[in-house]
Amino acid sequence: MSLTWVQKCFEVLDMINKDFTRLVVEIDYPMTAWGGAAAEEFFKYSLQSMDMLNSITSSISHMIQAKISLFYALSLVENSPSSAKENLLQNQPKCSSIKLVEDFKVEGLFSGIEEKSCFGKESVILQAFSAMKSIEFWVLDAILSGMETRKSAGNFNGSNTNCLNLRSCKEINEKPGAMKEVKEVQDAAMHLAAEISTERCKEAAKELTRRLVVLENSLQEIEKQTQSLFSQLLATRNQLLENFRFKRHEP
Question: For the purposes of burial, counting CB atoms within 10 Å of the CB of 81, is it exposed (0-12), middle (13-18) or buried (19 or more)?
């Protein structure tokens, strides 16, 4: 399992949000016109999503801290090998197994929801929220389970995905072990600790450095994607709140 897979998860989330935005435009029901039920549903959904995103950010922070500690251990290798070895064994990024959905793709997520089958545009939006939550909470839960900060998505029911237009969505399987980049750092750190007083120490230190750089780049990208989605949700929440304030002051 790779952190690259986690990055692709965020691509799925971005696709879902764009699909929802397209639906809002196509049925001509902007947020300024949303009724109380649609707004309330969005506030509930966005709050839970933001909470899960905060958990992902927290997990990333823990791994970044472990990475910094390993870089510190590398700085001790030459002048204090015993201290370096102690730090190598104590400070390693950890990451549990992740749920994998093979060839997961989302296409036309809300294309099956038509206004004629509902009573009003708000009902269309509420149905779309139900579909969006089923996928988004599922994906976020998969990410959290892979980053050792699993937090249940609450009312998520996997059966809800049956109504969605998914091109390929195979059975979720538990994959043992840490994610690829994390496992490679762990192995490189253990190898360096074993070779700390040998002539192979320098080469082992170079390998750990290389693995740490790969991990760092992956974590930076995931952190960027997490913050971007969080900011989008927060901006939409603020816009909805502003709409309600404006309506209350209308003559």
Answer: middle
Phi-psi map region of 154: left, alpha, beta (phi>0 left; psi -120 to 50 alpha): left
Domain count, the chain: 1
Question: Which residue type is seen at 182?
Answer: V
Q: Which residue has the tokens 């390693």?
A: 92
Which run of H or E residues covers position 98? strand 98-100
The CA distance from 3 to 5, in Å, is 5
* Tokens (6 digits) for 232: 């989008």
Mode of pairing for the β-strands spanning 98-100 and 173-175: antiparallel
Rounded Cα distance, 237 and 43, in Å? 7
Q: Cα separation of 33 and 10, whole Å?
A: 29
**Per-residue tokens: 8:** 């692709």
Q: Please list the pLDDT of the chain residue by residue as tens digits (251 residues).
A: 688 888 999 999 999 988 988 998 999 988 888 878 888 889 999 999 999 999 999 989 988 999 999 999 999 999 999 999 998 888 777 654 344 443 444 445 555 544 444 458 888 889 888 888 888 998 888 888 777 544 444 433 333 333 333 332 332 333 444 678 888 999 999 999 999 989 999 999 999 999 999 999 999 999 999 999 999 999 999 988 887 776 665 55
Structural domain harbouring 215: 3-248
Among candidate residues 161, 159, 242, 231, the one with its CA nearest the CA of residue 14: 231
What does the alpha-carbon distance between residue 47 and residue 38 come to, in Å, rounded to a whole number?
14
